[in-house]
Write a structure and sequence with these properties.
Layout (H helix, E strand, L loop, with lengths): L12 E2 L31 E2 L12 E5 L4 H12 L3 E6 L3 H13 L4 E5 L5 H15 L4 E4 L15 H11 L1 H10 L8 E5 L3 H4 L5 H21 L5 E7 L5 H4 L26 H8 L10 E4 L8
Parallel strand pairs: 1-2, 3-4, 3-6, 4-5, 6-7, 7-8, 8-9
């Protein structure tokens, strides 16, 4: 009997004809933000039909949470467009090494930095490492996050609440402050928001609130940095098959994950990456303070 989900012969990549799973087998990881190497099926982070055209040639980018999930897919797309990368992650060393090897095979240089972004010094370390190595910093992608599962606000401890904000919101301030002395006109700051910033989610309340804060951060900083021609935008994904998903929800949740979306399925990470390329490149030179909704038509707000 065939399983109700495709089995991929190509780990992490797809050929030019794309088949994405509609449902996923039950699975849960107890540790956040989760490990991509333990997921089944593995997330699809690359699409062979995406051919770079030098949109980011000669530029350097910091991607937080770039070891896996959406961050890994963004790293691959940036590498195809000619950027050199610094991938900042917590301690998912095997995932990070796999990403590094993959993007280096595409011709990009890649630095790995394992740090705790809740600490202000981590952002300054990432920026200095990037500037010292590549001689410049052009793009900052704030993507790292945690997403605790809870059934009630009464279950959100003070410790959890503080950790969620320290992980999801504070590093945007730390990283922007550290990067600003190096960013030049035309540089780009991109954050990962979420559809739940607009419609909420009763099972990830504190996470949803932090994503709303990211929307406000994006709009406020875009106004603050407009006179320097540094653009600040965000991407708001819908449900996506990433380690954060399997480390958040109960195992059985994966059987129906994303099926409430009008398109009938969750996204694969490679489907989100081109939005980040657009916001990082000159293609979006007149775009700032905006949130790009890549969500399968679940919900849209400006």
């Amino acid at each position: 009997m065939n399983p109700p989900y495709p089995v991929y012969p190509y780990i992490g990549t797809v050929r030019r004809v794309v088949t994405t799973p509609v449902t996923f087998p039950p699975q849960h990881q107890d540790r956040q933000p989760g490990l991509e190497r333990l997921m089944f099926p593995r997330p699809i982070f690359d699409y062979a039909g995406y051919v770079g055209s030098g949109k980011l040639k000669g530029k350097s980018a910091i991607i937080t949470g770039g070891d896996s999930g959406i961050g890994r897919a963004v790293a691959v797309a940036f590498a195809k467009e000619g950027a050199h990368l610094t991938i900042v992650y917590l301690d998912e060393h095997e995932d990070a090494q796999e990403t590094k090897q993959y993007v280096e095979a595409l011709g990009a240089r890649c630095l790995l930095l394992s740090v705790d972004l809740r600490l202000p010094a981590a952002s300054y370390q990432a920026v200095k490492l990037t500037a010292d190595t590549y001689g410049r910093l052009d793009i900052v992608v704030n993507n790292a996050a945690v997403q605790p599962y809870t059934r009630s606000i009464l279950d959100i401890s003070d410790e959890q609440l503080e950790n969620t904000f320290r992980t999801n919101v504070f590093p945007l301030f730390y990283m922007t402050k550290a990067a600003l002395p190096y960013l030049r006109p035309g540089s780009s700051i991109i954050s990962t928001a979420s559809r739940v910033a607009y419609e909420g989610d009763k099972n990830v309340i504190d996470y949803s609130v932090t994503k709303g804060a990211i929307v406000s951060f994006t709009r406020s900083m875009s106004l603050s940095l407009a006179d320097r021609n540094i653009r600040v935008n965000a991407v708001a994904p819908g449900p996506a098959w990433t380690p954060l998903t399997v480390s958040t929800y109960p195992a059985e949740h994966q059987l129906t994950f994303g099926t409430d979306i009008p398109m009938g399925r969750a996204a694969q990470p490679f489907e989100l990456a081109p939005a980040y390329v657009y916001l990082a490149s000159y293609d979006s030179a007149y775009v700032t303070g905006q949130i790009l909704h890549v969500n399968g038509n679940k919900i849209r707000y400006s």
